[in-house]
Amino acid sequence: MHGGKADPGDHFTVALQHPSCNLPADRFRRVLTHVLSAEGVTARHLVLVVTGRKAVQNLHRRYRACDEPTDVLAFDYHPAKEETKGQIVDGEIYIDFDTACERCHEFGADAEEEAMRYAIHGLLHLIGYFDKTPAEKAKMRALEDRYLRATEH
After folding, report:
1. ∠ at Cα 76 (23, 11), nearest 5°?
2. Could you give the angle at the alpha carbon of 40 between the alpha carbons of 39 and 41, nearest 5°?
């Protein structure tokens, strides 16, 4: 993570690489720690990168073969067959702060809350949640709402 404010933790790193992102890394750490604890999951290695649209879209194109913008990408490095799957997180989350700033008002939120939602969403994917069906999307959205309320300032 070059050029960003990095905040190394016991089990994860928050890198604030977006030039206009003034969100505190410790807030991201507190929120993600709460989610991990509530889900009964341990982070072996977790990196959260708050960056911009171009960087996230480049990653989306390069690693998912999809040349479209996306608000969050999660890369799971945990071996699928390992017996601790669902109990240990090992991966990276990239969130697009530009999109969070642009879309937050659609959802009655501010940029910080929207960015936190993206971080939670990415972590839920690493834990093992999916959002391919309407029921899965609704479940993830409910979890995001619950964890955002539980960790409000």
Report:
1. 55
2. 90
Residues 136-146 have pLDDT tens digits of 999 999 999 99
Greatest CA span in the chain, whole angstroms?
42
Q: Distance (Å, rounded) from C-alpha 108 to C-alpha 25?
A: 23
Domain count for the chain, please give it: 1
78: helix, strand or coil: coil
CATH number, position 55: 3.40.390.30
Q: For residue 62, what are its two tokens? A: 């390069």
Task: Report the distance separating Cα 61 and Cα 40, nearest Å.
Answer: 33
- AA identity, residue 8: P
Residue 89 · residue 44 · CB < 8 Å = yes
pLDDT tens digits for range 94-142: 999 999 999 999 988 999 999 999 999 999 999 999 999 999 999 999 9
Q: Which helix (H) or strand (E) holds 140?
A: helix 134-150
Both tokens of 126, joined, read 């690493």
Domain membership of residue 16 as a residue range = 5-150
Across 70-109, b (16+ Cβ under 10 Å) vs e yields bbbbbbbebeeeeeeeeebbbbbbbbbbbbbbeebeeeeb
